[in-house]
Amino acid sequence: MTDPDKHSHDLLLPNLSFRWHAWRRFRRDRLAIAGGIFILFLMVISAAAPLVVKYGTRHSPFQQHMMDKITVGRGQLDVVDDDGLPMGPNRVFLLGADLTGRDVLSRVIYGGRVSLLVALLATGVSLVIGLIWGTVAAYYGSFVDAALSRLMELMMAFPILLLAIALASAMQSSSLLVVILIIGFVNWTYIGRIVRGQVLSLRKREFVEAARALGAGDVHIMFRVILPNLVAPLIVYSTLAVAGNILFETALSFLGLGVQPPTPSWGNMIREGMSYYNVAWWITAFPGLAILLTVLAFNLLGDGLRDALDPRLK
Amino acid sequence: MTAYLLRRLIWVVLLLAGVSLATFVIFFQIPSNPAELVAGKNATPEMIANIERRLGLDQPWYVQYWRFLHRAIRGDLGFSYITQQEVAPILLAAFPVTLSLAIGAAIIWLAIGIPIGVLSALKPRSLPDRLAMIFALVGISTPVFWLGLVMLKVFADTLGCFPLGDYMEISRGGFFSWMHHLILPWITLAFLYAGWYARMTRANMLETLGEDYVRTARAKGLAEGKVVFKHVLRNSLTPVVTMFGMDLGYLLGGAVLTETVFGLPGIGGLAWRAIQQRDLPMVMGAVVFAAVFIILANLVVDLFYAVLDPRVRYR
Amino acid sequence: MICKKPFMLIFVTACLVLSCRSGQRATPSSADTGPRRGGKIVLLSQNGPDYLDPALAYLSTSWEILPAVYNGLLSYVKAAGAEGLDLIPDLAADMPVVSSDGRTYTFVIKDDILFGPPLSRQVRAADFKYSIERLFRLNSPGVGFYMNIRGAAEISSGRADHIEGIEIWGDTLTFHLLEPDAVFLNKLAMPFTYVVPREVAEDHPQDYSQHSVATGPYMIAQYVPRRRIILVRNPNYSGHEGYVDTLEIQLGANTLNAVAKIKKDQADLLLDVLPPSEIPRLKGDPRYENQLKISPIGSLYYIFMNLQVEPFDDLRVRQAVCYAIDKGALLKVWSGQGTIAHEIIPPEFPAFEALNLYPGPNLEKARELLAEAGYPKGFKTDFYASNLDPNPRAAEVVQAQLRQVGIRTTIRLFDSSVYYQLLGRPAENIPMGLTGWYQDYPDPSNFIDVLFNGNRITAVRNNNVSHYDNLEVNRLIEKTLISMDPETRKQNWRRLDRMINADAPIVPYLHFTNHAFISSRLGGYIYHPSVGTLLTRLYLKERARL
Predict the structure, then answer these.
(1) Complex confidence, ipTM
(2) What pTM was estimated for this model as a whole?
(3) 3-state per-residue secondary structure call for C210-240
(4) Which of A170, A281, A303 has the CB atom closest to B29's CB atom?
C-alpha cells in the first residue's frame, strides 16, 4: 500500500473483462458505493447551491442579521444579542446563525462548493506536475532521474504546511486561483512518486519496446503508449488525493490564508467561529462535520476503487 | 560505509542550504520593512535608516542571505525583528513543547494503531475488522484543528476535566500537571495518526500472511501465535517503522494546527506567528529547524534499512 | 469492539488519575474589610509585557506593571475615572515651577529616595537626565514625545551626546522647551521617563529588563520571558504604596484558561482584554455579578477614509459612508464592550461633548449623497483591517453595510504588527479601513493633534491615516497646543472635534470600555483611565471565618 510499485502488474490490463470484474467487485463494496453516492449528492447540491439556498434554506449565505429580530415560538428574539452572541439552531436558522447573524446552513452549502472546487482543481494541478515529473524522470532514467529525484527530495525536506503558508503569505492576493495553485504545487510529490514507480516498471515492457522499434518518438511513447496504462492507478490515487486536498484547503483557510471572507469555505467558517467555540459551538461544529463526511466519502470511494482495481489487496 | 555516510551528510547540508535559500527568496517577495517594526510608533525616517543599516537591510538579498548562511553555520540565527531576542534560544525553548506533544502522541497512536491493525489483519472482513477500519478511516478523515476544538469544548469546557489549552512545563507544574495539559492534544493528534497506522499495519500484515514462507511455517505445524509474532509481525512492521521515523521527523518540526488550537508555545506555533509577522529571521530559523528533523529522519530511516536489510547496497 | 477498548481505557484512567474537576468549586466568601497588607496575588497575561525596561516598553500590559517597580517625576492621582486625570509629584518634591513663557520647567528632586538593592544609592537629578537621554540612544518608541526639549533633535541625529536643554543644579532639574507645551507634564508622567540608574543600565545594555534596579514599592525578583514575573517588596522603598507582599504574573496562559482559573480563585486578575466569548457568559451569571468590572478607557475605534484616494476626496462620499454605517452592529461585534462613538474625544475627558452629526443609519441620505457626488451606483474600493479578532468580523459587517448603498469593498487583512506599519506609509495609498487609538496621555491633543493635524503627516509611521489636512483645523490645533489656559483649551478641543467631524475624514464608532474579571478574594481593584490596573492598590480580602 505504501509502495506504489507493488500492485502495478494487476492494474495494467485495461481490457473488457478486467473492467467488468472490477465493476463487479466495486458493486459489492457497499461503503464505497455509499461514499460515491454522497459525493454525487454533494456535487448536485453544490452545483445547484443558489437554488437550494433560495428555495430550501431561504437565507442568503451572505445576508447578515446583526440588528434583526425574528419570531421563534412565542417571543421576538435577537439574531445576535447585545453581547454579540448569535442564536443557536432553531426553526428559522436550522443550524443556527454565525457571529454576524448569517445562516450557518446556507454557508455550509456554499462553503462546500468552494472547498470541493479548490480540492478538485488543486488535485488536477498536482496531477499535471506529478505526471510530467514522474514520466520524464522514470522514462529517461540515469542522470535525468537522479537530478529530478534530488529536486523532489528538496521539495520533501520542507515542512509542507509551512511552505504553503509561506507561499500564501508571499502572494499578495489570495484569490481562489492562487490557493488552488499553491495546494496543487505543495502536494504533487505524492502523485509524482506513484507515476515514477509505475513508469519505471512499464518502460521495459514489450509493448513499449515494440512502439520504440516502430520508430515512435519519446514524447509519443511517454504520453500515447505509457500514459493510457496509468489511468487506473491515477484514478485511485487522485480520489485519495482529493480527500487530502480538502483537508489541506480547510487547514489553510482555517489559518486565514486560503479562501477569503465573505466567501464561505468550511475552513474559514471554523476560523471565524473559533473564538466562540465554547459558547456558540454550532458555528464550528457543522462545517467541521461537513469536512469529515466529505473527506470520509472520498476516502471510502478511493479505497473501494483501489480494491476493485487491485484485487490482491483484498 | 564511511564514504556512503559522508556522501549522505554532504547532501544533508546541501538540502538545508536549498531549503533556507528557497524560504529566503519566498520571503523577500513580501513588501514589509522590518526596520519600521523595530523603530516603533514615533520613529523618524533617520532612525529607520539607521536601523536598516544596523540590520543590514540596505544590502541586496543575496548579500543578506550570504550573511545569514555565514552566521547560521556557527549556530547563530540572528535576532527576531519583532521581539529583538535571539532566534536560536527561542527555538530551543520552544522545542521541549513540540517534543512533548510529538512523543506523547506517538506513544498513543502506536499503542492504538498497531494492535488494531494486527488484530484486524488476523480476522479480515470480520465485524471487528470492519468496525476498526471505519474507525481508522474516520481518523484519517477528520480535520485535526476541528477535532481539537471539539475536544476542548466537550472535555475542557463542558466537563471541566482538562485545561482549555496551554502548556505546563514539568519543572514548573510537575509531571501530572504537564500530562494533564497535554492529554487532549495528544489524543487529538494520535486519533489522526492511529488511523493511518492501523490501516498500514493491516495491509502489510495481510500481505506478509500471504507470503510463501508463512505458509511454509504454518505447514510445518508451528503454533499460530508463534507464526504471527516471530515471522509475520517482524517483517510487516518494517515499513511501519520507516513511516514512524518520517512522521516523527515532521512532527518535531512543529505541529502547526494542533499547537495553534491548543495554544501550545511550540515550534509550529512560533513559525506560524513569525510568518504572519513577516519576521524573517524567526521564519528562517523555524523552517531550517523543521527541515533538519525531516532530513535527519530520512537519513536515519535509510540507515536503519541498510542495517536491517543487507541487500540494500550503499549506492 | 477491539478498537475502542484501548482508547477508552487510556481515557478513563486519565480522567480518574487526574481527577475531573467538573463544575465550580465553591469558594468561601470573602468579606471586604478594607485594604489589608500581606499575601500574594496572581495575575495572568497571555503575551506579557514587551519589555520591563521603561525606555522600550510600549504595551498597555507593560505600562500596568512598570509603575509598581519604577517612578518618574510625576504621576497620576491613583483613582478611577476623571478623578485620576490630575497630576501629582512623585519623585519630584513638588509640582514644577513654570516660566511665564511656558518654555522652562524647573523641578526639585526629593532627597530621600534610594534605588533598590543591590545598588541602594540615592537618586540624583542627573539620573533623570540620563534616563531621558537613554531613550534616544536606544531608539525608544517614545522619543517622539520629547523632541520639543531643546537639543533633542541634536542627540536624535547623533550630533550631540547630551540633551543641552536639560540642566542640573544640585537637586534641581530644568527642562528648556523649544515651544510652550501644555501637555509636557503629561509626557513626563509616561513610563518612558521613569528613572533608571546609569551604572546598571550601562552594565546591561541588551537585557536591562532582566536586571532592572529602581525606586518603586516592588522590585523584579524574577523575570522569565513567556513564563513568569515575580515582584517582591523593595526594602529601600519608604512610601505607602503596595498592599500585598508578592505579585506573581504568570505569562503564556490563554485568556480562556485565565477566566477559568479566576473563577476558582486560583488567580486574581487577567491583565489582557477578556475573551469576547466569555462576556455573555459572565454577564448572564449572577454568581459573578460583582467580579465583572467595567471601566472607561480613553480610546477611539474608527473607520478611516483616505482623502488622498478617490473618491474619498469628495466630502459627500465620506458623509455618505457616515450615514451608511450602523454603529450598533459594530458594538455587537465588540461584544458590547464600550459605548457608541460619534465624537473623537473620549467621554471621560472634561473636553468631551456629545455629537451626532450623521444620525443613522440613513441609507436614503447616503444614496442621495453618493448620487450628488456622481456615484449613483456606488463604487469599488479596498477595505483594510488587522486580522486580530474581532477586526475581520467588523470588516465584514462594514462591507455588508456599505454594499447596501452600492459601495463594493474587497477586504484585505494583515497581521496587526504588519498592518499598522502599512497604515503608517502614505505611499501605500490605503483607501479605507479599520483602526483605533488608545491614549498615551489623557489629553484631547493626543487624539486631535496626533490623528488629525495635517502638519503631522509623515512618510513613515504616520498616524494621520486619513491624510486629513485642513488649514483652519491645523491652525487652531497649533494655537491650542501652546495655550496654557485650561478653559480655552477645553473650548477649542470641543470646537475642533465638531469641525473635524463635519469634514468626515473618519467614522468614529466605538469608545472601548475595559471589561475585567477579578477573583472573589481580590480587593482594591482600580482601573485608571490612563495607566490601567493600579497594581499597588490591589489587596487580598479577609477570608470569612466559617
Answers:
(1) 0.87
(2) 0.86
(3) HHCCCCCCEEEEEEECCCEEEEEECCCCCCC
(4) A170
